[in-house]
Amino acid sequence: YKLWNGLKAVDYVPGICCACGMRSRLGFLFPTRLRSFFCNPGANYIWEKQRTGGFEGEIASVVPWLHGKPVVVLSSMEAMQQVLGYSDDFDKLTREPGTALFGTNVVMLQKEPWKKHRRVLNPAFSNKLYALVWKESMRMFRDMVDTEAWDKKQSVDIPLLNDLTTKFTINIVASCAFDFPSTWSNSIASVGDEMTLQKCLKVVLDDIAVRLLAPKWAYYIFPFGALKRVDTAFSTIFRFMRAQIALRREKLVSEDMSDEDTQGKNTIFNNIVKANMEGGKFAFSEEEVIGNTFIMLFAGHETTARTLNSLLSLLALYQDEQDKVYQEIKQILPDGRDPTFEDFESFTQIRNCIQEAMRLYPPFVALDREVMKDVQLGVTNKVTGEKEHSVVIKKGTHIVVNLLGIHYNPRHFPDPETFKPSRWDDGSVNPDAFGGFGQGPRACIGRKFSLAEATCFAVMLLRDWRVEVDLAEGETPQQWQRRVLTDKVNGQRGLGPISVKFVRRKSQ
Ligand code: HEM
């Protein structure tokens, strides 16, 4: 009966039938290896599908017979625009599991309550913030080089690129969004007694399914390592946030709020805490303060770190592209001077490389929405892109906008597997097919924040160092990319362990 209803809800769009739904909690728990007799797509389904040739059509369905909701997966630009646009037919999920874990926040709320949150946060995202991001990224980069004593070395081995980039991006979001002082040697990423903040944030990401599935009492009864780890991670982060919120409240009370200086401090954290203190129509509850603090800390670092990981790996693989970036840096900074925020827009090669890295390895592989009333979805021809017919999708159905599928759709991106940064300014692609930062009213508020940070990091690094990877004997760059990046990539955990080497440039 469940299957029958599910098939009706998706208007019999072709796809797979399975035991557990694509986004169901139980589906995250059960092994996907049981597929042959107990089909379970699992948490990493989008990447697995991509590695084996992608979904059959630009619209596909995944309908469960045991647990979870029917899902429609969309892999075309046209469908992405329809779903992520301004229409009221689609919204964020009514029961977003993340809200229970992190608290009510701007990312997960549905349209009406979301407006208040955006209103509180918007003023903080200004050019003043992006200039600060640039300045802090410069300071942190120099501090990293000094502390790690890179200036005394001709080459530096980076056994785990992810650890380096994550520490960098946590420090930047801490100082620019929250005004927490941080240096490379005394980093905010290292606070915490039992577990460092950096480790806690990683555990939250890796073991989110455990937190979602385990009831509270399980933590007191079962001695499992994963439960203990997740509990320590969540309690450390929440303790840290509560302490910081209390301190900020005291600071804001002691400052005169009508003072011109204080008014000028439209920082992200100040705005969140002030929205709770000032009351009124746009007041935040305690729970909303926690939820937004958490989401800003989290969304503000992890995605940028992943982008830097894919960017640096791809530039290490495609040395000719790295050379083009280096030539541009030399041209913009002819005397070897440090880059300034005013130079930001001039680094077009790096911008194209970042966009291309995000196309191939988008930090969010898919975006979730819910159908709010029965709706017609256009079905396009895979080759021409012409609308062929429509299907009627029932209210309550879960929509997955498959960013990975769209980014590898040859209709939008010819030769999609190839890292080709020039495609972004040679007129060969429609930029609207890029969904890395989302689209429409819920598109990423931190886009320019992260682009300023990633650009500054990349310019500082590539000006002085060449990035290299160790290819196995006889291995081509494409084979390395497949072995180390694509095959290890995981929808929840991002890219696998990447080791690279920074080699000092000869002109140094
Ligand atoms: C490369 C880095 C980043 C990527 C790839 C990224 C990606 C995204 C995507 C795809 C969305 C849309 C989600 C959806 O439609 O369901 C989003 C929303 C959001 N991002 Fe980012 N993001 C990045 C950096 C940041 C940073 C640095 C911040 C904050 C400092 C941030 C804060 C947010 C917030 C608050 C939203 C929710 C916007 C809303 O619903 O109004 N992001 N991001």
Task: Write up this protein.
By secondary structure, the protein is an alpha+beta fold. The chain folds into two domains: 165 residues, no CATH class; 331 residues, Cytochrome p450 (Orthogonal Bundle), CATH 1.10.630.10. Strands 1-2-3-9-6-4 form a six-stranded mixed sheet. It has a three-stranded antiparallel sheet with strand order 5-11-10. A two-stranded antiparallel ribbon has the order 7-8. β7 and β8 form a beta hairpin. Bound molecules: protoporphyrin IX containing FE (HEM).
Based on the structure, what is the oligomeric state of the protein chains? single chain
CATH superfamily of the largest domain: Cytochrome P450
- Report low-confidence residues grouped into runs of 5 or more: 260-264
Architecture per CATH nomenclature, i.e. the level-2 architecture of the largest domain? Orthogonal Bundle
Principal-axes geometry comes out as globular
Largest sheet: 6 strands, mixed
Mean of all residue-level pLDDT scores: 88
Question: Which band does the percent of strand residues land in?
Answer: 5-15%
CATH class of the largest domain: Mainly Alpha
Q: Which class do the helix and strand fractions yield? A: alpha+beta
Named CATH topology of the largest domain: Cytochrome p450
Query: How many runs of DSSP E, i.e. beta strands?
Result: 11
| Count of discrete alpha- or pi-helical segments spanning 4 or more residues | 21
Radius of gyration: 23 Å
**Which hetero ligands occur in this complex?**
protoporphyrin IX containing FE
Give me the side-by-side strand order of the main sheet.
1-2-3-9-6-4
* Overall number of structural domains: 2
| Distance between the ends | 70 Å
Helix fraction bin: 40-55%
